[in-house]
Amino acid sequence: MQRWIEVWRRRLRGTSRRQVVTEAMAVAIVGLALHGLGVGPVISDAPFDVAPFWHVPLLLAGALIMLGKRRHPVAALGAGFVVFAADLLIGGSLGAMLVLIDLLYTLALHGSARAVRRLIALTAMIIAAVTVLGWALLHDLRAGLLIGLQAFAVLATPTWWGTSVRRQSELAELASARAADRERLTRMEHEEALRDERERMARDLHDAVAGNLSAIALHAEAGLTRPVTDHGARRALEAVRASSLSALAEMRTMIRLLRGGTPERSPTGISDGRAVRELVVAHHGAICADPADLPQLPTAVDQTAFRLLQEGLTNATKHGSGPPEVEVSLAGGHLDLLLRNPSPPRSDRGSGMGLEIMAERACAVGGSLTVGEDDGVWTVRARLPIEGEAG
């Protein structure tokens, strides 16, 4: 039973319009119930002695006026006050008093600031006038004060209640706005700190790494301009020059991205057969499958596979012995990258940071990476998923 009551309560008070209709119906029902129970009149010696039935149409008129209290609170209160005054002339009823109390509360809560100030001033003047008038007519100060207290209860209490709720609501909205401003300021500070960090990284890359790469390319170019009788040395210089120029181009792209600009070119992917062949040849390796035969791959997988190949060939050239072998294939919705080269007789392979970065790259796209010796051969296996939308 309680659940059904809660459901109906939510339905009736779901929107502002429904809430207004519900409140008007509730006042009308309570007023009719009080009238049916014979509660009243408010004034024992009313100016006009009429049948109690006439309180009912005035109550219903007040309930109809309540339907427009949200859109026109000032006009609704004026009309409601007229109904209340007319009801007082025939003795007054609690139903009409409830209508006036609700309209006063609504104006204090939803009216403009100017209207609320005028309502407070008008309420104070009416209470004072009623008190003085009662004292003058009854020639009794205590009777005048009692009438003034009754007027205060009817007029001032709902006004004070509405302004209090309004003030609390405004304070809650102000606190919410301040919290939103603090959150926005924190986010802006975080973004500014991130931009500063990216700018600093871009400057460091440009001043240190990019400068060194440019120097390497220039020295290699200078070496190639001189006659070199050793063909192996010449090929090494050409590989150094090509690798440094490629790294410099990618470094500039990275710097532009860090500074929030548009890159001059997109990062190279494993599907770029020419770039893969040049990379493998530069490391004196051999490729077993032509990447040009690969279908269109997701951008993240395409670029990650090329980065894994770059780092794997670098490790092979740095630590391995003999030409590395590269194989790229598709199987079961995955891209398989296999790199093998004879292992060196020594066990020192550096800090291992390169292998950690390779594993992180593979995991970032949902793949896996295994690295280690297999029957005396240093082997790198990467398996990357390619299912999904291609980039």
UniProtKB/TrEMBL annotation:
Keyword hit for Protein biosynthesis: no
Top-rank taxon, per record: Bacteria
Sorted UniProt keywords: ATP-binding, Kinase, Membrane, Nucleotide-binding, Phosphoprotein, Transferase, Transmembrane, Transmembrane helix, Two-component regulatory system
Catalytic reaction annotation: ATP + protein L-histidine = ADP + protein N-phospho-L-histidine
Membrane listed as a keyword: yes
GO cellular component terms given for this protein: membrane
Domain Signal transduction histidine kinase subgroup 3 dimerisation and phosphoacceptor: start-end pairs: 197-260
Class of enzymatic activity (EC top level): transferase
Known EC number: 2.7.13.3
GO molecular function: ATP binding; phosphorelay sensor kinase activity; protein dimerization activity
Transmembrane segments: 20-44, 50-67, 74-107, 119-138, 143-161
Record-given protein name: histidine kinase
Organism of this sequence: Ruania alkalisoli
